[in-house]
Amino acid sequence: MKLHYPRKSNGIYILKRDDMDDIATMLLTAYMPNVLERPQPVDIVALAEDGLFLTIKDKTLGFTDAVLGLTAFGDNQEIPCLDDLYRPMTEVVHEGTILIHSTLQGDRPRRRFTLAHECSHWVLHRAFYSEGNQEYAFRGQYIACRANNIGRKYHAPKTDEEWGEWQADVLASALLMPVRPFCHIADKIIRKCGRRHLTDRVDYEYIEIIEEISDMFQVSKTAAEIRLKQLGYIQRERSYA
User: Fold this and answer.
1) Looking at residue 160, what is its pLDDT?
2) Looking at residue 146, what is its pLDDT?
3) Disulfide-capable partner of 41 in 33, 209, 218, 232 (CB 3.0 to 4.6 Å)?
4) In the 8-state DSSP scheme, what is residue 236?
């Protein structure tokens, strides 16, 4: 799927938050339109493998800092890993390979979001990390995403890398919680409680709503809460002090 958005000279797209919902809708319409018909968990593995033709591998990644996921944009990329006995080894991966840290097998919502984040890098950032982009070629043709970058709250991204991580996070959220079915179920659940929106004051009802939505889409409660805030369902409580 070709994207028609402006780019910076180094290949990174210039995108707004609303653009991510449009891109997610285009992807899902092309590869699994049924998930746009009603609220349900998106099969992100099928989207990655059957739609985007990516290869997914679970590996114990051996970086010195906490890397949860990695996407290869070129062939013969040498990735530090650990074997079954936690001995250092090198995994050679090729273009279109996603590595997910094996520790996430026990945390399904976080694994799903990490995989969606890596798929988003593939869709958005191949030109940025390509072999032909000499400005970044010395980094290697892969991106390693650290735990503190996936799902991070970027209030004001500054560097190209920060913008890239922000884009991957927002598109991942839009893929796992498509805007139309998400808004449909959010409206229904919130109105069932006699409200039109939520405030950021956390109470029992607030927690129940977050949990119901996270269960519906099989995402973490944090991801569901951030998506509700992005779409205007959670508003700041006024202070009259």
Assistant:
1) 83
2) 86
3) 218
4) P
| Domain boundary pick from 152, 176, 200 | 176
- pLDDT the model gives residue 194: 81
Whether 12 is covered by a domain: the verdict is: no
Residues 6+ apart with CB under 8 A from 24: 171, 174, 175, 178, 179
Question: Can you state the angle between helices 179-192 and 204-217, rounded to 10 degrees?
Answer: 150
Residue 72: beta bridge partners?
Answer: 142
**How does pLDDT run across 57-97, given as a tens digit for each residue?**
999 999 977 899 999 999 999 999 999 999 999 999 999 99
Dihedral of CA atoms 160, 162, 166, 167 in degrees, nearest 10, equals 20
Please name the residue that has the structure tokens 């992005």: 230
Question: What is the chain's length?
Answer: 241
Q: Which residues of the chain have pLDDT under 50?
A: 134, 138, 238-241
What torsion, rounded to 10 degrees, do the Cα atoms 121, 125, 129, 134 define?
-170
| Residues whose CB is less than 8 angstroms from the CB of residue 91 and which lie 6 or more positions away in sequence, other chains included | 57, 59, 78, 79, 80, 81, 99
192 and 166 both lie in a single domain: no
In Å, the largest CA–CA distance within the chain is: 60
Amino acid letter for position 31: Y
How far, in Å, CA of 146 to CA of 69, rounded?
7
202 torsion bin: left (phi>0), alpha (psi -120 to 50), beta (else): beta
